[in-house]
Write a structure and sequence with these properties.
alpha/beta; 6 helices; 9 strands; about 30% strand; globular
Length: about 190
């Protein structure tokens, strides 16, 4: 995939914080560029469930062109503290050391970024009402699949199938790299 090698300053700062914290599981640059592009089309309130050290949130922030609010929650207090350091001078980003469910009263969200790694917490029914009409949901960390129903590790990937067929959303799976895809869903 073609992309400029330079990172936005806020994203480079997030990578530095991750290294200092010893955290290595974070949003890929390909996903990050997708997030920045989609964030550039949004206003209102955006959210990320599962901040880690803040790389995904940094990518969202790098794409924002209007006055928006970004709220993000990380259950691990050490990681939440590290992520908060990135945005300490940015009043438009709130990092909470909390479970994602604490953000349910912060919406509706114009863009919601979720990690598919914890399928039970990102099921369509768990988050659909948190997204405004026309709002976007981005789920990352899928392995590309060219068959239907989608198969992952020898089983039907029910999370992906659920998001791609739910009538409340128009959704598509997008390959972001040869070994990674994301589901993008727009609330009807």
């Amino acid at each position: 995939m073609s992309a400029p090698p330079d990172l936005p300053d806020i994203v480079a700062r997030a990578f530095d914080v991750c290294r200092k914290a010893g955290y290595v599981a974070f949003c890929r640059n390909e996903t990050g560029r997708l997030l920045a592009t989609l964030a550039a089309t949004r206003g209102g309130t955006m959210a990320e469930f599962g901040t880690g050290c803040g790389v995904g949130t940094a990518w969202l922030r790098s794409g924002v062109r209007t006055d928006v609010r970004i709220v993000t929650a990380e259950l691990n207090p050490k990681l939440a503290t590290a992520a908060a350091e990135i945005f300490e001078d940015d009043p438009s980003v709130d990092v909470l050391a909390a479970d994602w469910s604490t953000l349910t009263d912060q919406g509706p969200f114009s863009l919601l970024f979720l990690d598919s790694g914890e399928p039970d917490s990102v099921r369509v029914d768990a988050v659909a009402d948190l997204v405004e009409p026309g709002g976007l949901v981005v789920l990352d960390d899928f392995t590309p699949c060219e068959v239907w129903p989608p198969i992952h590790r020898g089983r039907v990937d029910t999370l992906r199938e659920e998001w791609l067929t739910d009538e409340r959303f128009t959704a598509v799976e997008v390959m972001i790299a040869s070994d990674a895809s994301a589901v993008i869903a727009t609330r009807r």
